[in-house]
User: Fold this.
Amino acid sequence: MGAKAIRFLVGLSAGFLVLPHPVSAQEVIYIVRHSDPPSTLNLDEILDETPLSESGQQRAKMLAERLKDAGVTAIYATQATRTVETAEPLAKTRGLEIRVHSYEDSDGLVRQLRSENGSDRVLVVGHWSTIPEILKALGYPEEVKIERSAYDNLFVVVPREKQAPMVLHLHY
Assistant:
């Protein structure tokens, strides 16, 4: 999908949210996987301390460019260096602090989102294994699988009162 199409869809979802409608949680939650780690490492060699590759840093900047006008007011990332580094360009652009949470507690993250960010537009940076858990905890009934080699997934989650959230699955 091209950059213009992504900007259109993200803008559309952000614009949709300014219309009055009842919500029981956030206006919107953007969920992405961390950007690319160094390609010289095998998957079993990637640790919490593993930083982003040069291409991963560029992808993180691209994400910040895509979401800079989306009204993000809170950012969450796991304790892994690459999730924090993925969130940093947008956090700097928006003047926000990155809130670190454990990747072992997706339900706890969702409880925190609901209790502390009830009317916010939130970015959550996770992992191939945690994004499906987070979507499920948010009430999304569909099974989501993310390939371990895919770093361009962007889920736009719009909570709806007494219904499953609306979820757009994009790529950036």
About this structure: Confidence is low (pLDDT under 50) at residues 15-25.
